[in-house]
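lol ok so funny story. i was supposed to be doing the assay writeup but got distracted and ended up predicting the structure for this chain instead. priorities right. anyway since i did it might as well share w the group, maybe its usefull for someone
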Amino acid sequence: MNPNQLRKLSRKSFGWAITSTILLTINVSLSLYVAWVYHQISLYGHIFGWGNIPLEVFPIPPEQVEGVFKVIGWLGVATVLSALGAFLFCMTQVRNAIEEVTQNVLLLNWRYTILSLFIPIWCLYRPWLGFAEVRRAATGIARRKSLSPSWRTDGFNFATFALAFVWYVLGCGFSLVIGKVIEQEGDKDITLGTLDLIQRLTTWQIGVDSIFFATLIWYMFSLCRALGSISALVSFTHVSKRSFHGTIAS
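and the output, tada:
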């Protein structure tokens, strides 16, 4: 394989990983802002008494809170979906590089891997097989410093299992449940006790999301690092061959 092409794929995967990280950071920042607004209102509610908070101390004018939170909610959804899309693009670049380096030895169809993410039940199993195969190949080749298919003997991939666990249990489980409870509490007549509960739930949601996002970011950048090692290996091999042939020719 052309080392320049491999370096190009490596840079692309790194670029998508950075893009995903930035989007996830924006998402957490939006959630932190919402938590801060709740905290400020709750704080002044305890100081002045509920219903007696001066308008000038509100972080957002009361009549604008619902509209601002709605916009933040949509931005939150957009940043998460975009970040997950960037993650898939990052994985695609890594897989393309592995296929080129190993002469198409990957067995699982990548289109089915992506498609299966959106199919109930199948999404719990099939996409993670595809991700695990890519990761085993990338980390196995980088660790052994060999392009041989011996990475197939590595077996169960705990890193991909960990990502799948936080993806569904935290990202699609606890976080969504907490978000639903917050939404239901917000539909009630707001009291100081309700506001304190929403504030605590928002903080828990940020914690859960942060664990999920941190795992996703680690997964991407560890693959990018492995691909960088493979790129260096291929470049060294390419230079060595050229030096060898040059010596023979001379």
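The first helix runs from residue 3 to 48. The two ends are 25 Å apart (CA to CA).
back to the writeup now i swear
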